[in-house]
Amino acid sequence: MSFTLLYIEDDGDIGSVVSADLIQRNYAVRWLRSGEGAAEQAEGCQLAILDVMLPGLDGFTVGQRLKRAYPKLPILMLSARSSIDDKLQGLQFADDYLTKPFHPEELAARIEVLLRRTGSSASGELKLKHLSVYEGENRIVHAESGEEILLTGKQFQIFYYLLRHLNQIMTKEQIYEAVWGELYMEGDKTLMVHIRYLREKLEIDPATPQIIETVRGVGYRVRG
Prior knowledge:
Layout: E1 4-8, H1 12-24, E2 28-32, H2 38-41, E3 47-51, H3 59-69, E4 75-79, H4 84-91, E5 96-99, H5 104-117, E6 125-128, E7 131-134, E8 139-142, H6 153-164, E9 170-171, H7 172-180, H8 190-202, E10 212-215, E11 219-222
Parallel strand pairs: 1-2, 1-3, 3-4, 4-5
Antiparallel strand pairs: 6-7, 7-8, 9-11, 10-11
Helix pairs in contact: 6-7, 6-8
């Protein structure tokens, strides 16, 4: 299952490299160039990565505001400033502090540690709109009513395939071939029928789906 990370970095070169590496590791990344809109973008994220030196509000200020808005959101600070005073300032609210330059493997390892520590590891809970998804237990629960949503085998496979590619548009061919293990034949309505039944179970209003989005002429995606 993919987890969504909020990443705030104003340097385009560094941001591109780090984002690409994290996406390759199956994370969904919301990359911002400044702290503007950070609180809104943090909703639904499992972790925030903040550079200290940002245009406008600095990373310390942005991080403190995020922690107030989302007390359980783990925050990892990044900075080229290695002085002990800077680290202590960051660690007053952040959960970890990594000095630049760093190796992508170290960043990935620290992210995984923070996710495990906060119960957001692969076997933990993923909040998705009105759903609580527990991949390790193969359970989906309606967060408001507390009722468990039971899926058929194929519905389960389709939904979890889309979850593993959270926020990515997956073609009908990709989904069908991953779930059924056969080549997709143009015009086959099997997947469409399964998506319709899946929406009837997962969506508050299947006519206006908020979980499984149709991308016309391409396929489907689940938004985090």
